[in-house]
Amino acid sequence: MSLSRQLWLTVILVTLTSFTGGFAISLLSTQSYLEQQLHRKNIDSANSLAHSISQLSKDPVTIGLQIAALFDSGQYETISITSPDGRVITERVQDRVDITVPEWFVDLFPIRAEPGQAQISDSWMHFGVIKVVSQTRLAHLALWNQAETLLLWFLAAGLSCGLIGMLMLQRIKKPLSTMVEQAEAITERRFLTISEPRIPELRSIARATNDMIRRLHNRAIEETARLETLHKQINYDPVTGLANREYFMNRLAEIVGGGDTPDHAGEKEAAPGTSISGEDVTPGVSARVVAGSGDEAPAAPGTGSEVAATASATEGASTGATAASEGDEAAIPAEGIEAAPEVIIPVERGQLIAPNENGKAVAEPDQEEAVREHIAAEASKRQNGILFLVRLNNLQEINQKLGRTETNNLLRQVAALMGKTAAEASSDNESSASLAARLNGSDFALLIPDMDDAGRIANQLTRELTALSLQTGEAVKDLYHIGAVRYQRGDKLGELFAKADLALSTAEQTGVNAWHAIAAQPGHPPAPAVNIGDWRHIFKDAFAEDRFTLALYPVVGRSGAPLHQEAFVRMQAQRNGGWLEAGDFVNIAVRLSLTGPLDMAVIRHAIESLQSGTDDLAVNLSIETVANWEFRNKLAALLGQFPDLCRRLWIEVPEYGAFRKFEAFRDFCHTFGSLGCRTGIEHFGHQFSELRQLTGLGLGYIKVDAAFVHGIHQNKNNQRFLKNLCRLAHDQGVVVIALGAQAEAERKALVKLGFDGVTGPGIR
């Protein structure tokens, strides 16, 4: 029962109790008083009338006139004179007086007044006895009027007390409602503090709750900070703050070995079809990558050449230079460095949900051929990039000349330079995030997706590294060499690093502070120009005919039972044609600002799938749609029509996009979470510096990026990091799912670490 009902019930009970008691006491007292007054009146009237008659003659007419004078006033019920022998000399009796008093009230409160009697004398003789009885109906009328007055007074008092109580209750309910919202926020993993109310009892409760919230929030921040520190210790170089070799190789394996680098502004999962390559760099190649080189023949600083070269690696590694000691250095983040999220590519084909069919005519063969060329061109453009290797020459000699402190400062300056270059490349192409890393003491790597022109970046690095070399004076003249190679999806890491090592060796042979890039191979021709307007027509027809479908892949829980189905969008570029994978058209949809209609189509097909099946379903929304109020409200209105299905729908946004447009993502979590959907982040783990912003969003789940999952059963450092991540997420009620699991050993290790779900090529 609500407080307001309890209040009114209390007021009613108190009013009834007070009224009943007061009414009974008041009326009984008034009844007794009226009886006494009537009795005295009877006596007084009898004495007065007896005295008057005693002084007059005793003839019947005179006596009758005296009695009539008093009786006709209407206040008396009976007046009679009785002789000493009991004979009635005269008697007047008034008929019943009609009044508005109910009979039940008269019966409930009867008024019985004793009649007044007096002796009448005739000279010295006893003439008779006069008896006077006053009318009681008038007394009942007075008693009834008093009862009405009491009733009205108690009703008014009860209503006034109730209204005053409601006002006081509203004052109490306001801080109570705030405390309820605070408690609900805790269940949604949002930490809110409230102002302390003026009511002492509520103030103590609010103070205790606020203290608890602050402790929980501080604990979450501390855990996040510790996890961020652990993340940097495991995945970043402690001296330069760049990504370390293991982290870089995992990221590169995802991008090159079969994954995509989807657009961060409107990211969709790429479709299955190619398994992720697990091939690592061969020992011979690895030696060439990480080792330092000896002195080279003189050449003009900053010169570079870009010529075709074979993919085979030359045997034998140059003599290695010993890196400066790094063990005592603290991790220093490189400005602007962000790791690009990858896309998980399952091995097996997914289950397709057939779309609706329309009777539109089939395109001409020439048009289909043009579409295929456009698709190939876009896929080629999206799936390539440049890998740069930068080697600092004779690092041991530099350490001896400059000293350990200055050498470390030099390494930090080189790292900051490469981090700045990676950040600028990412800002130029928002669809991809570049990555800089330190592979060992003297070798650095720079990965720039979606780029064909290696010369521009190489010349920029040459100018800035040469300027850095001049700052050291005469101590360091031959500071660096740069090798660059173009990559495409499907390249093997061993062959790719062999070509990169060959490019670096060629640069070392070219001269001082030189660079060299290996051009595209015949099997990797440059992408032809694409008319983006043609894609606009393709999307227009696809939206009109609803040529979209979803491919489903399982996400299993700790016991191996299905947790939900992962949905990947497919599109038919032409009616009756093949189905395009998401990676073939999502980036184009972003450039055409069509992610909103595309996500609407995804949600509609997700609703159809939920209606026809029993499993939960996870879909990915682009951050551009999330940040677009119009389409986001349309999605919310559509899902609002299916509240029962919303509880089975998982909606996720890529980590890169979520932090890039964080306010829109915060509102997205609130809007879709209130509908009953589970909101989450996919490809999680690359931006731990922003992790504390997620505290209080009410996230339902996170999907940890595959770069942290690969080989987890053999990686003790990542095991420690992921175990702490799971504990922190579980403390906030967040479900943790791993992406990209390729083997049963990985799945078992992830479950042991505390993951709630696993997906990837190795999950059937």
TrEMBL record:
Which keywords belong to this entry? Answer: Membrane, Transmembrane, Transmembrane helix
Q: What is the lineage of its organism?
A: Bacteria, Pseudomonadati, Pseudomonadota, Betaproteobacteria, Nitrosomonadales
Q: Where is this region: Disordered?
A: 258-328
Residues in GGDEF domain copies = 383-520
Domain of life, per lineage: Bacteria
Q: Where is each HAMP domain found?
A: 170-221
Q: Name one GO biological process term.
A: signal transduction
Transmembrane residue ranges: 150-169
User: Could you tell me which PANTHER family the record lists for this protein?
Assistant: CYCLIC DI-GMP PHOSPHODIESTERASE PDED-RELATED (PTHR33121:SF79), CYCLIC DI-GMP PHOSPHODIESTERASE PDEF (PTHR33121)
Residue spans of biased composition, Low complexity class: 302-328
Species name for this entry? Nitrosospira briensis
Specify the protein name.
HAMP domain-containing protein
